[in-house]
Amino acid sequence: MTSTTMLSVVIGNLNLLKRRAERGDSNFLRFADGALDGAERAAKLTHRLLAFSRQQPLMPQPVDCNKFVAGMSELLHRTLCDDIRVETVLAGGLWRTYVDPSQLESSILNLAVNGRDAMPNGGKLTIETANAYLDAAYASENAGAQEGQYVLVSVTDTGSGMTPEVAANVFDPFFTTKGGAKGTGLGLSQVFGFVKQSGGHIKIYTELGRGTTVKIYLPRYFGRDAEVVRSGPAAEPIPMGSAATTILVVEDEARMLMLTVEAFRDLGYTVLPADGPATALRIIAEHPDIALLFTDVVMPDMSGRKLAEEALKQRPSMKVIYTTGFSRNSIIHSGVLDHDVNFLPKPFTVEELARKVAAVLREGMP
């Protein structure tokens, strides 16, 4: 589905919803669902384009890829067909890597889906991990590769394989062999962008009629021990707020401010809206009970980061969440979020907002 089609789906469904509601017809929820589906597809397309251009904000953490891949087992089995056997080969003594867990999960899933599509009559998908060293000779022969130690995650299918001509273009954006109705051509380009932005390397090995292997090399993490991220947390109910919790929302775009304020109210919070940093600082001085500042980053006169610094001078215990659709600003450097930042990228759903706010408010609680 193209971006033009996605926008047509959103606009068309919203127009029909408005017309039905104005006539008093209560049968309009399906149009809301249609608009949401089109908008979510457009959001995913935007994130994939940012991934390919290496401009998505990354939130890297120490990751144990063995535990991470094992945690994806249920997700993979739900995604793949019953006639595709999934096998994992996990190396002992595996090093850790330092990457964005959500992007790693998305990359493995993209590769698995590509493998599934290459095996319409069934087959085997193998996910392997290993420690790897890319030497100077390999780096000199493979553009973009750097000599060093890596954690290798490889995905192999027993499917149809590719010709050399197809394989040479698979990481290009919008290149697809699936036909317009089955894919955007951005799955592998998203994987490519994520790996490159993470300082890694990606290599594809394929032979027509004999399957494909995609190898992802992620830099070894040498940092101190920390809580290691695993994949696959179970879905939980949407956390609701309380009117006893006051949230200050700062957004200079009027429509986005109204939408965000209503979302917080729908979740049960008490909300104070501010159309810019000056208004926000005045409200903070008048309301000592504000528990959380939810602020846009890119605003005239004062950035969200500067606003937060000024606000915390008055209310040191106040929590802060930043939001933006831009990847290059005061909280993101070289594509990576600053370590002390709570961040929710635009566009976001009410469910994503609810989970992020609940998690930040829990920080530091006994």
SSE topology sketch:
Blueprint (H helix, E strand, L loop, with lengths): L2 H20 L6 H24 L8 E3 L1 H7 L1 H7 L4 E6 L7 E3 L1 H17 L5 E12 L1 H6 L6 E10 L6 H4 L19 H11 L3 E7 L3 E9 L26 E5 L3 H13 L3 E5 L2 H10 L3 E7 L7 H11 L4 E6 L7 E2 L2 E2 L5 E3 L4 H13 L4
Parallel strand pairs: 2-4, 8-9, 8-10, 10-11, 11-14
Antiparallel strand pairs: 1-3, 4-5, 5-7, 6-7, 12-13
Describe the protein in words.
- The protein has twelve helices and 14 strands.
- With 366 residues, it is α/β, with parallel strands linked by helices.
- It folds into three domains: 3-52; 61-219, Heat Shock Protein 90; 246-362, Response regulator (Rossmann fold, 3-Layer(aba) Sandwich).
- It has a five-stranded mixed beta sheet with strand order 2-4-5-7-6. Strands 9-8-10-11-14 form a five-stranded parallel beta sheet, with helices on both faces. The protein has a two-stranded antiparallel ribbon with strand order 1-3.
- Helix 2 (29-52) packs across helix 8 and helix 5 packs antiparallel against helix 8 (187-197).
- It is globular.
- The N and C termini lie far apart (47 Å).
- Residues 51-55 and 333-337 have low confidence and may be disordered.
Structural features:
Heat Shock Protein 90; 366 residues; five-stranded parallel beta sheet; alpha/beta; five-stranded mixed beta sheet; 3 domains; Rossmann fold; single chain; 22% strand
Give a summary of the structure in a few sentences.
It is built from 12 helices and 14 strands. The chain is α/β, with parallel strands linked by helices.
